[in-house]
Design a protein that fits this description.
The chain is an alpha/beta fold and about 260 residues long. About 35% of the residues lie in helices and about 20% in strands. It has helices spanning about 40-55, 70-80, 95-110, 125-135, 155-170, 205-210, 215-235, 255-260, and strands spanning about 15-20, 25-30, 60-65, 85-90, 115-120, 180-190, 190-200, 235-245. The strands form three sheets. It has a three-stranded parallel beta sheet with strand order 3-4-5, sandwiched between helices. Helix 2 links the parallel strand 3 and strand 4 (about 85-90). Helix 5 packs antiparallel against helix 7 (about 215-235). It is globular, with a radius of gyration of 20 Å. The chain binds guanosine-5'-triphosphate and magnesium ion (MG). Magnesium ion (MG) binds near residues 2, 10 and 11. Magnesium ion binds near residues 2, 10 and 11.
């Protein structure tokens, strides 16, 4: 459900993904990664992290084998929580057994979590062990959500994220980080969904880069995003994209609030 890109700080909101089985319900709460915030948007991202920590019955810290040994901030945060913590060391498809052993040892000695898992999400290696850990540690409780609920987010949100994913994949440097996507219209017709979106950037120069020569770059964003939307909505999509400049929106609380970022 969450968009995935090679760039850091892709996830900006807390997003629920709900797994429903006959005898359990797991509510996964995906959050942004833990960073030191430099502007208001990043502050909001960190409050999404903190809120999740308060609510969570189980905390899964997803790190990866390539991270430097400098996760002091996360370690401090997690030491304060009461809920069981599992550290998940991802991307071990890219490493040696010695590197994995050293990482496992680092996490055991620095945080002493309830469990450490070395996994590869890409190769689906050891992912089942994480699921088993979660099921073993779930508190007994009636399901929080109806058993057919999959997420707390609506179609507009996912569709806007699909556009943002393409922007993160296609553009370099500060462009993805200066961008927000707003769905301005979403009309469902019998055979087609007509969707209009505004891509917000902070400067005119970014607007020019986003559009590209003769509109080529923006067209690419639209084409790729539309394909994802059609698969997700199982319907043809007509997608219109507009680019708008809002100077320094990332640092302005009123815009962040309007764009759905929590305080
Ligand atoms: N080699 C390898 N790459 C992986 C694995 N799992 C994820 N990736 C890649 O890692 C990158 C980051 O994935 P994301 O899901 O965006 O990471 P995230 O932790 O949610 O990061 P943010 O949302 O940016 O904070 C993507 O390019 C993934 O394809 C894995 O097991 N092995
Ligand atoms: Mg993410």
């Amino acid at each position: 459900m969450s968009i995935i890109t090679p760039k850091a700080q892709t996830t900006r909101h807390r997003i629920l993904g709900i797994v429903n089985e006959d005898d359990y319900q797991i509510v996964f709460s995906d959050t942004p990664g833990v960073i030191k915030p430099h502007y208001a948007l990043q502050e909001s991202m960190m409050s999404a992290v903190n809120d999740s920590l308060v609510d969570a019955d189980i905390i899964l810290l997803v790190t990866d084998i390539n991270e430097k040994y400098d996760e002091g901030d996360v370690i401090e945060k997690l030491k304060k929580t009461q809920s069981p913590v599992a550290v998940i060391i991802n991307k071990i498809d890219k490493s040696t057994q010695e590197e994995v052993a050293a990482k496992v040892e680092f996490w055991q000695s620095s945080l002493n979590p309830k469990a450490v898992f070395a996994v590869s999400a890409l190769k689906e290696y050891n992912v089942q062990a994480v699921m088993d850990f979660i099921i073993d540690n779930l508190p007994e409780h009636p399901a929080y959500y109806e058993k057919d609920t999959l997420t707390d987010r609506n179609e507009r949100f996912f569709v806007s994220e699909m556009i943002r994913e393409k922007i993160f994949k296609i553009y370099e440097k500060e462009i993805p980080y200066s961008t927000e996507v707003i769905i301005t219209s979403f009309k469902e017709e019998a055979n087609i969904n007509r969707i209009s979106a505004e891509i917000i950037v902070e400067r005119d120069s970014q607007k020019n880069i986003l559009i590209g020569k003769g509109g080529e770059m923006l067209k690419k964003v639209g084409t790729y995003a539309r394909k994802d939307m059609e698969e997700f909505l199982q319907k043809k999509v007509f997608l219109e994209l507009f680019v708008k400049v809002i100077p320094d929106w990332r640092s302005k609380k009123n815009y962040l609030k309007r764009f759905g970022y929590e305080d």
